[in-house]
Amino acid sequence: MTVAVVGATGAVGREMVAVLEQRRFPVGELRLLASVRSGGRTLTAFGRDHEIRPAEASSFDGVDVALFSAGSETARVLGPVARDKGALVIDNSSAFRMEPDCPLVVPELNGDDLKGHRGIIANPNCSAILLCMAVAPLHRAAGLERIVACTYQAVSGAGARAMDELRRQEEAERTGQPLEHSVFPKVIAHNVIPWVTGILPDGYSVEESKLRDETRRILGLPHLPLTATCVRVPVFRAHSQAIHAAFLRAISPEDALALYANAPGVRALAEGLPTPREVAGTDDVVVGRVRVDRAFSPGLALWCVMDQLRKGAALNAVQIAERLVRS
Amino acid sequence: MTVAVVGATGAVGREMVAVLEQRRFPVGELRLLASVRSGGRTLTAFGRDHEIRPAEASSFDGVDVALFSAGSETARVLGPVARDKGALVIDNSSAFRMEPDCPLVVPELNGDDLKGHRGIIANPNCSAILLCMAVAPLHRAAGLERIVACTYQAVSGAGARAMDELRRQEEAERTGQPLEHSVFPKVIAHNVIPWVTGILPDGYSVEESKLRDETRRILGLPHLPLTATCVRVPVFRAHSQAIHAAFLRAISPEDALALYANAPGVRALAEGLPTPREVAGTDDVVVGRVRVDRAFSPGLALWCVMDQLRKGAALNAVQIAERLVRS
């Protein structure tokens, strides 16, 4: 198959190429596309060098699968072009996520929503994937009634430039230089910032709103009460979430661990403390500290960690492609 | 007055000395006490050097006020000794916090609980002080019904050794050496750990349980449903909390800001993002991102930051002493 990766030089794009390789996706020709300024660079994949080409309409001639991770603007312009040229488009931006005729899919949870797609599939927000993977097995058994989620999000969620910003600030602090910031609205080194990509007029951040809206759509619970505080932390890779969930029917921590044992893509720990350092670079959502909630009855409290560049972005996109290619 | 600081070489003890100085507490003689291994060192305070002496029973002869920050064991042994010698004991450990005849006090909130004390006053856990300072003004107006709190706690909450551990790990990472840990159960550099001093048999951490039990006691709400996830983050100083609170009566973000305007010790921001870097070294609890909660109705979501060495420990202890000395 001819596969295009759009935004191939970004943090998610590079991970998409790595996941395609690792999962032996049937790639005949690989086209690595990016903005004009990345043109001319090369990336090694599938055992050979690939030139990065500027993404434009003609880039998609003959493409079977196009994995987009180049932001909403590029997706809105080039996504329909690629689709009209016959490519299956899987887009990691928020451009199409809330469009009713565009499926928003976590394959383990709502893969059936892919049926009847019109050529463009939306890959959900990483925080929504983490939350849905953690609560869906419990919801099927006990019925979700309400969720409070607080996030601890790695800087790589804001791209490679954000990782550089954290590194530069730490170096500046160490050498007594002034700390500068441009990606984040405050210094992130040795700090936490309750701001993930902008604050909306109602006081919620863009991420907090995506987390609610996309979780409702993926779980098929359009009225689920769901509140969140999304916070950036000085971690390079892997997002964490503290989840406090109320259910309609009784569910114990032991029940939850038994349900997770049969949940693909989730690894639950009866003991131990999952942390981003250990989960970075791995595929599963890791759930720990499963306990009876003290504010909700019946309810459970969970601590969940996921590499947001893998299951939160690149891996989920490739899993969608695999599922569609198989069918 | 003769004032003793027990644990004077620790992170909180040093801050206690600084706060006594800054607030011009009427100190005639200052006795800086610590463990035997700290003996012989000196600290400068009130314009002169003070020798650190080992804390023992005779240290408290003639002491008027004894500020303890030396752990529960020392407090249990020497607290009653100091009290019996006539000192007013204010203890920052958890030794006496849940004893019914020992007041647990945040002066702005329940200073009246000091009446009839028996010589030992407990200074609350820092996370409980932050949570109570943030929700008490709202509770008085609208009645708290339920709280979910997730914390982002600085390493200095675990003492000076924990700050050194973070610094050493960052240096090791930078120079390609192995990362070692002993204060925390995992590496804290570029990581977050959902563990604040131990996990109890019910799955909650010690901090999460203190946060619930002490908040209930300070607010006088012994049955308040309160759940928490307490997490250590690689920040040196100042704790943050995401608070999602349900109320019995209607309360809007505008109502909350008006209530905070009259709440001593709280500074609420109608706009802006409080972060630990900016709040470190200051006295107020800073509240931001006040918004209508999406899971609770009526409810509010808040983001709150406080220097836990100051209002969360040293400042609160000195404020208790000031109030008792005045009366």
Descriptive notes:
The structure is a homodimer of 327-residue chains. Chain A has 327 residues and is α/β, with parallel strands linked by helices. Chain A is built from nine helices and 13 strands. Chain A has helices spanning 11-22, 71-84, 107-110, 126-142, 160-174, 206-219, 253-261, 276-279, 310-326, and strands spanning 2-6, 29-34, 42-45, 48-54, 65-68, 88-91, 120-122, 144-152, 226-229, 239-247, 266-268, 285-292, 299-306. In chain A, the strands form two sheets. Chain A has a seven-stranded mixed sheet, with helices on both faces. In chain A, strand 1, helix 1 (11-22) and strand 2 (29-34) form a beta-alpha-beta unit. In chain A, helix 1 crosses helix 9 and helix 4 (126-142) runs parallel beside helix 6 (206-219). The longest helix of chain A is centred in the middle third of the chain and has 17 residues, at 126-142. In chain A, 57% of the residues are buried.
Write a compact overview of the structure shown.
Chain A is of the alpha/beta class. Chain A contains nine helices and 13 strands.
The largest pleated sheet of chain A is described as:
7 strands, mixed
Count of DSSP-assigned helices of chain A:
9
The class by helix and strand makeup of chain A works out as: alpha/beta
CATH architecture assignment name of the largest domain in chain A: 2-Layer Sandwich
Strand content of chain A: 15-25%
Greatest contact pair?
A: A-B, 54 and 54 residues
SSE order and pairing:
The structure is a homodimer of 327-residue chains.
Chain A: E1 2-6, H1 11-22, E2 29-34, E3 42-45, E4 48-54, E5 65-68, H2 71-84, E6 88-91, H3 107-110, E7 120-122, H4 126-142, E8 144-152, H5 160-174, H6 206-219, E9 226-229, E10 239-247, H7 253-261, E11 266-268, H8 276-279, E12 285-292, E13 299-306, H9 310-326
Parallel strand pairs in A: 1-2, 1-5, 2-4, 5-6, 6-7, 8-9, 11-12
Antiparallel strand pairs in A: 3-4, 8-10, 10-13, 12-13
